[in-house]
Amino acid sequence: FVRQQYSIRDRITADGSSGFKAEAGRYHLYIAHNCPWAHRVLIYLAAKKLQPAFTVAYAIPGIREQGWTFENDPRFPDCTPDTVNGFHYLHEAYTASNRHYTGKVTVPTLWDKQTRRIVNNESSEIIRMLNSEFRGIAGDDTDFYPTALRAEIDAVNAFTYENVNNGVYRCGFAKSQEAYEAAYDQLFAALDELERRLSRQRYLVGKRITEADWRLFPTLL
């Protein structure tokens, strides 16, 4: 299993120097409850108390012929249609941003209502924006990526991503018993290492919760 690198990587900045200024009410998120990559974004919306500043559309679960789907379905009351753009399928947001787009369509997807285009679809970058660029808009300015801990956070993130976040996909999408067993062994060796780390300290990095913890947590649920 080889994960495709995502291609929409613009940024929101506090001062707007990127072309996307951090503003309450300007941005819209396409999310799915059952996606761990999207779950980390939902965690940040809650932890930073940013829910009032964003609108969110929640996809209905399950594999659909046209991918992530947004609609009213009484079986899934926590899933909501796209009230901002009226898109029924997420791929419509991608082609609305770039009619020549042929890449993968993924959640989370961050949409700018002002320019009517996608800003970013990489969860690790979206949570960094939510963490740092919305000071004064966020209801909680806790910094989950403090300067003094960044090098260690980055190292733990790299280990967690390779062996756990992406490791479960290598297990699930293995095409042979041999590939599955190799992925399984790597995943559980990594979990053992993280358990040893957490047996010595309450959090993955330092004495406080950081981005490293939030990036691990959704995969373990």
Q: Could you give a short description of this structure?
A:
38% of the residues lie in helices and 8% in strands. It has helices at residues 36-47, 91-97, 123-132, 150-165, 167-172, 177-200, 211-220, and strands spanning 27-31, 54-58, 109-112, 117-120.
Structure description:
38% of the residues lie in helices and 8% in strands. It is α+β, with helices and mostly antiparallel strands and 221 residues long. The relative contact order is 0.16. It has helices spanning 36-47, 91-97, 123-132, 150-165, 167-172, 177-200, 211-220, and strands at residues 27-31, 54-58, 109-112, 117-120. The chain is globular. It has a four-stranded mixed sheet, sandwiched between helices. Helix 4 (150-165) runs antiparallel to helix 6 (177-200) and helix 4 (150-165) packs parallel to helix 7 (211-220). The mean pLDDT is 96. A hairpin with a 4-residue loop joins strand 3 (109-112) and strand 4. The chain starts with 26 loop residues before the first strand and ends with a helix.
Helix content: 25-40%
Strand content: 5-15%
> Could you tell me the mean pLDDT?
96
SSE ordering: EHEHEEHHHHH
How many beta strands in the DSSP annotation? 4
- Radius of gyration (CA) equals 18 Å
Number of helices: 7
* Class from secondary-structure proportions: alpha+beta
Distance separating the two termini? 22 Å
